[in-house]
Automatic annotation (TrEMBL):
<keyword id="KW-0732">Signal</keyword>
<protein>
    <submittedName>
        <fullName>Trypsin-like serine protease</fullName>
    </submittedName>
</protein>
<feature type="signal peptide">
    <location>
        <begin position="1"/>
        <end position="24"/>
    </location>
</feature>
<dbReference type="GO" id="GO:0004252">
    <property type="term" value="F:serine-type endopeptidase activity"/>
</dbReference>
<dbReference type="InterPro" id="IPR009003">
    <property type="entry name" value="Peptidase_S1_PA"/>
</dbReference>
<keyword id="KW-1015">Disulfide bond</keyword>
<dbReference type="Pfam" id="PF00089">
    <property type="entry name" value="Trypsin"/>
</dbReference>
<keyword id="KW-0645">Protease</keyword>
<dbReference type="InterPro" id="IPR043504">
    <property type="entry name" value="Peptidase_S1_PA_chymotrypsin"/>
</dbReference>
<dbReference type="GO" id="GO:0006508">
    <property type="term" value="P:proteolysis"/>
</dbReference>
<dbReference type="InterPro" id="IPR050430">
    <property type="entry name" value="Peptidase_S1"/>
</dbReference>
<comment type="similarity">
    <text>Belongs to the peptidase S1 family.</text>
</comment>
<feature type="domain" description="Peptidase S1">
    <location>
        <begin position="35"/>
        <end position="236"/>
    </location>
</feature>
<keyword id="KW-0378">Hydrolase</keyword>
<dbReference type="InterPro" id="IPR001314">
    <property type="entry name" value="Peptidase_S1A"/>
</dbReference>
<dbReference type="InterPro" id="IPR001254">
    <property type="entry name" value="Trypsin_dom"/>
</dbReference>
């Protein structure tokens, strides 16, 4: 798996609460996920495309009127974050909202971004703390990531939201920060640059958040069930 080779100790020490404009870096292209293969989503109103300083960067989901869920590594340096929420097309439609606050999980690849404008329903139906997946179960991955491996990923980011089917290989894997993750292997597509922070769905619920991928056959998604109480405590959902 492609992951960051070093992580600042401060990021791992404790829950971080920071202004969006003061702490965010572009997604590292050596570790983040893209949907190669799969197809285009026809109906997915929960999606949010994450832009860093106006440039397409990661994927995310809207989970409440003022809250977006994404990967911690998508919001880890200096910059401004905006989101196009509720549209399959990252260039138009939906709502454009700007992040005002970031809450990072202390040890898992999860982050909550509070936005300054109220978003309209529907919101992603998150897995509960007792909702799990099983080995061999088919799950869906969503994102706007790159669709190629033979050129810079920024040149082939998907304009429209894509979806791929994958199979669970380990419901107790690890994300890049050592948090609990759902590990999957490719069926008709896989995640890797630009899909980071995007959702994994199983049986109509969001069960994971994209963390790492080998860009060929395997990906790891931070497991929402493990961190459900943290999401509820901080975002109220």
């Amino acid at each position: 798996m492609r992951v960051l080779t070093a992580i600042a100790g401060a990021l791992l020490a404790a829950l971080s609460l920071a202004p969006v404009t003061a702490s965010a870096a572009p997604e590292d292209p050596n570790m983040s996920p893209m949907i190669i293969g799969g197809g285009y989503a026809s109906n997915f109103p929960y999606a949010a495309r994450l832009f860093f300083n106006g440039r397409e960067n990661c994927s995310a989901t809207k989970i409440a009127p003022r809250w977006i869920l994404t990967a911690e590594h998508c919001v880890s340096g200096n910059g401004t974050y905006t989101f196009r929420a509720g549209s399959l097309d990252q260039t138009s439609g939906g709502q454009l909202v700007t992040g005002t606050r970031i809450i990072k999980h202390p040890s898992a690849d999860l982050a909550l971004v509070q936005v300054g404008t109220t978003m309209t329903a529907p919101f992603s139906p998150l897995a509960g703390s007792s909702d799990g997946v099983t080995r061999g179960q088919t799950v869906q991955l969503y994102g706007w990531g790159a669709t190629c491996t033979n050129q810079p990923e920024i040149n082939c980011q998907s304009r429209y939201l894509k979806v791929a089917n994958t199979s669970v290989t380990n419901p107790n894997g690890s994300d890049y920060r050592g948090g609990r993750a759902i590990s999957v292997q490719r069926i008709d597509g896989i995640a890797a640059g630009g899909d980071s922070g995007g959702p994994m769905f199983a049986a109509g619920r969001q069960v994971g958040v994209a963390s790492t991928s080998d860009r060929a056959t395997r990906s790891n998604y931070t497991r929402i069930a493990t961190y459900r109480s943290w999401i509820t405590t901080n975002a109220g959902v």
